[in-house]
């Protein structure tokens, strides 16, 4: 299916097919070749000039453009022993200036004698950077906080009853439960590696309030019911993630439409990468990633190459939980805001540290 129906990547107004990544722990993306082994040719004019909005400045020696690129991506642009950068410069007849280590500016400058060469180099750099971005762990996420008093109380009742009635079930542990102050509905994740990218994401999200959210909700409150349980895999006896559902109905449909359109908007802007055709509305209540080592002395093991390897997840048996609490009612949720938050952070109120938030009708 990766060949018949490949994942598509949007960079600005351009669409690319994502080829499956090499499944090799020793694979180094900096070693990746840009072509299929064909001999070097003049490919400058084979690229479609599809970046009509690109700002290209005319200079005494030709043309130049500047790309804002976080320094985390420089190694992918340069490549092993500088081969990637050299090849790009040769094939597009440009000069690509990458800041040296220690320089504070995060900009790559492309110089050339021809506008088409500039556009071609910029297009190829966009693809390299976007491919590298997808290999990064996400740094920020767009979410709906599920921290109202009624749902938190319902969650705490659920946790108490599960630990009381299902004590002894394989893998069940109190540390698997989500922090009640951080319960949330995840809309989408993002890789934002510098202040410019964070600010750009925040600006785009704020623009959605007037252009998308207000016309869709028309001033009406959005309230859904959090009820019932589901799990992520197909074996209830071996579960890693257990989550609460948003109860189906008109309110759920409105919420689904809202978040899907938000993802469309942010994906088109190149801020968010779409993982699925529709956002899966769920509130994680138990996750084995949160399992604590009882001894408190767990040390990551190393693989054959000496790289740190995360401890393997230990699933839990959720059969009895699903049997005893299939339609557990966590309570009503009035959705009054959307948050762009930083991963692995905690704000003053106990929720994730907020970059920006968009208010919804109250």
TrEMBL record:
<dbReference type="InterPro" id="IPR036612">
    <property type="entry name" value="KH_dom_type_1_sf"/>
</dbReference>
<feature type="domain" description="K Homology">
    <location>
        <begin position="61"/>
        <end position="130"/>
    </location>
</feature>
<dbReference type="InterPro" id="IPR004088">
    <property type="entry name" value="KH_dom_type_1"/>
</dbReference>
<feature type="region of interest" description="Disordered">
    <location>
        <begin position="291"/>
        <end position="315"/>
    </location>
</feature>
<dbReference type="InterPro" id="IPR009210">
    <property type="entry name" value="ASCC1"/>
</dbReference>
<dbReference type="InterPro" id="IPR009097">
    <property type="entry name" value="Cyclic_Pdiesterase"/>
</dbReference>
<dbReference type="InterPro" id="IPR004087">
    <property type="entry name" value="KH_dom"/>
</dbReference>
<dbReference type="InterPro" id="IPR019510">
    <property type="entry name" value="AKAP7-like_phosphoesterase"/>
</dbReference>
<protein>
    <submittedName>
        <fullName>Activating signal cointegrator 1 complex subunit 1</fullName>
    </submittedName>
</protein>
<keyword id="KW-0694">RNA-binding</keyword>
<dbReference type="Pfam" id="PF00013">
    <property type="entry name" value="KH_1"/>
</dbReference>
<dbReference type="InterPro" id="IPR047538">
    <property type="entry name" value="KH-I_ASCC1"/>
</dbReference>
<feature type="compositionally biased region" description="Polar residues">
    <location>
        <begin position="295"/>
        <end position="304"/>
    </location>
</feature>
<dbReference type="Pfam" id="PF10469">
    <property type="entry name" value="AKAP7_NLS"/>
</dbReference>
